[in-house]
């Protein structure tokens, strides 16, 4: 029997842009530490919108190929192998829904436990994370460090060693979704507001509201462009 033909998968726009960026890095013999042209210039040369370019840059940042910082542009961290980059991009997109499900299962429970069990010192650590994220956003950054600190502080305050271990196991996968989410317009400020609602419930030791606020926060930050484009 002959094997059935299957539809050819059409590459997403950001994949095409990533391929072009990989070619640019190779053709110009760029080395770690070199900076890519400004986004406006790159978008113009590629004939794409800055939003599409930004999504491709973030996809490369998630893989550790680029470092994208406010006021510093996109800096090469390591030389990419084009075939492996595209394969990793597709694997990343495929596993995003599973990461979101895991976050909902773990972090909603952790928020409720944190409200029940947190100490004054742990509440202070949660507030410190909020202040860090606030200062990052005020400086024009995405708030990645403060975001990570906040979720770690909630996990610590929950006093559940096994749940904390599970969170540690998926921390790198969560970091992928964190970068993806916080790179979207207005998302850092919206994420911070979600954190404040969780923190207020933890402060009042209202476990039901803390869990509800965390569930709403995870749903909001999980709305990423990569999944919308892939649907």
From TrEMBL:
CDD domains: WHTH_GntR (cd07377). It comes from the Bacteria. The keyword tRNA processing does not apply. Transmembrane segments: none annotated. Gene3D superfamilies: GntR ligand-binding domain-like, Winged helix-like DNA-binding domain superfamily/Winged helix DNA-binding domain. Residues 11-79 form the HTH gntR-type domain. Pfam families: FCD, GntR. PANTHER family: TRANSCRIPTIONAL REGULATOR, GNTR FAMILY, UXU OPERON TRANSCRIPTIONAL REGULATOR. This is FadR family transcriptional regulator.
């Amino acid at each position: 029997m002959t094997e059935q033909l299957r539809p050819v998968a059409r590459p997403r726009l950001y994949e095409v842009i990533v391929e072009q960026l990989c070619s640019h890095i190779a053709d110009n013999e760029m080395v770690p530490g070199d900076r890519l042209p400004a986004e406006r210039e790159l978008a113009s040369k590629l004939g794409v919108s800055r939003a599409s370019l930004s999504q491709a840059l973030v996809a490369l940042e998630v893989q550790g190929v680029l470092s994208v910082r406010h006021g510093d542009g996109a800096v090469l961290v390591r030389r990419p192998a084009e075939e492996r980059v595209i394969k990793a991009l597709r694997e990343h997109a495929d596993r995003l829904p599973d990461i979101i499900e895991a976050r909902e299962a773990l972090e909603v429970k952790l928020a409720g436990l944190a409200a029940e069990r947190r100490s004054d010192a742990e509440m202070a650590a949660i507030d410190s994370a909020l202040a860090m994220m606030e200062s990052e956003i005020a400086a024009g950054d995405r708030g990645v460090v403060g975001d990570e600190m906040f979720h770690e502080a909630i996990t610590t305050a929950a006093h559940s060693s096994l749940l904390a271990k599970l969170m540690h196991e998926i921390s790198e996968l969560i970091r992928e979704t964190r970068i993806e989410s916080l790179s979207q317009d207005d998302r850092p400020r919206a994420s911070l507001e979600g954190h404040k609602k969780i923190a207020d419930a933890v402060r009042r030791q209202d476990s039901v509201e803390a869990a509800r606020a965390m569930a709403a926060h995870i749903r909001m930050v999980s709305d990423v462009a990569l999944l919308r484009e892939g649907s």
